[in-house]
């Protein structure tokens, strides 16, 4: 069973259910996932993998050429990826989302910053030639978010539209560094006041047009914005709004 980071809290019964929001939060906040591939004999094989996401939300995997799933994907690129928010109590009562599609090779150097922000421990082997990066090109997703909350989603519905947000994507590294160097207190407020997570030295890990990722000791969380952002200036406004909300303003 996948161990995953904490997603944004699921809406309460009276506030309406947002399956796309829940699925996006699970995907963006997961740092590990269960990857299912097909072996040479057609039998399914499941492995635990580290996970990050591209700006549009597509899963990114750093894969060793020695791994069995790498050999499987070289023969048949079809795969499924399970992201789950496993907490206390019945594990089947917690939300999980499965994405399915095909894996394609991407240039890992173009994803270095995003990957290492989420998996700094992999810096020691990230540049090794026998490690390459794959992107799962999803066809769709299946969300199980609780009793009576089972939804099939298309990738068109789930993906984050990054058209016009090239400035934000280019500025992400600087935004992350600025938040961690100068506004650690704000990130802590996001975690404790808005997401009701335990107190600690939470770090800012990433941002996309629809929200931001924060993390503490390998546990990550996704905090959505009130409105889309396409520039660094937009992100600043959204983050200031979230601080005001966290402070009760």
TrEMBL record:
Entry protein name: Heme iron utilization protein
Signal sequence, start to end: none
Transmembrane segments: none
Top-level taxonomic group: Bacteria
GO cellular component: cytoplasm
Residue ranges occupied by any Pyridoxamine 5'-phosphate oxidase N-terminal domain in the UniProt entry: 23-141
Domain DUF2470: 173-242
Organism from which the protein derives: Methylopila capsulata
């Amino acid at each position: 069973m996948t161990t995953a980071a904490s997603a944004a809290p699921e809406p309460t019964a009276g506030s309406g259910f947002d399956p796309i929001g829940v699925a996006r939060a699970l995907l963006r906040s997961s740092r590990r996932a269960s990857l299912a591939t097909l072996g040479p004999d057609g039998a399914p094989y499941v492995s635990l993998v580290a996970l990050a996401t591209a700006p549009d939300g597509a899963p990114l995997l750093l894969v060793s050429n020695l791994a069995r799933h790498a050999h499987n994907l070289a023969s048949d690129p079809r795969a499924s990826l399970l992201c789950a928010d496993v907490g206390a109590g019945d594990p089947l009562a917690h939300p999980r989302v499965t994405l399915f599609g095909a894996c394609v090779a991407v240039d890992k150097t173009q994803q270095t910053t995003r990957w290492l922000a989420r998996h700094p421990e992999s810096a020691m082997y990230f540049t090794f030639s026998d490690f390459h990066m794959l992107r799962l090109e999803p066809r769709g997703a299946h969300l199980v978010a609780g009793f009576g909350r089972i939804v099939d989603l298309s990738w068109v519905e789930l993906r984050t539209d990054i058209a016009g947000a090239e400035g934000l994507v280019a500025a992400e590294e600087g935004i992350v560094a600025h938040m961690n160097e100068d506004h650690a207190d704000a990130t802590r407020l996001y975690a404790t006041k808005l997401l009701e997570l335990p107190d600690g030295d939470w770090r800012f890990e990433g941002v996309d047009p629809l929200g931001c990722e924060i993390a503490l000791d390998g546990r990550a969380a996704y905090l959505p914005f009130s409105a889309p952002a396409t520039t660094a200036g937009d992100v600043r406004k959204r983050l200031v709004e979230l601080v005001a909300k966290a402070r009760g303003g």
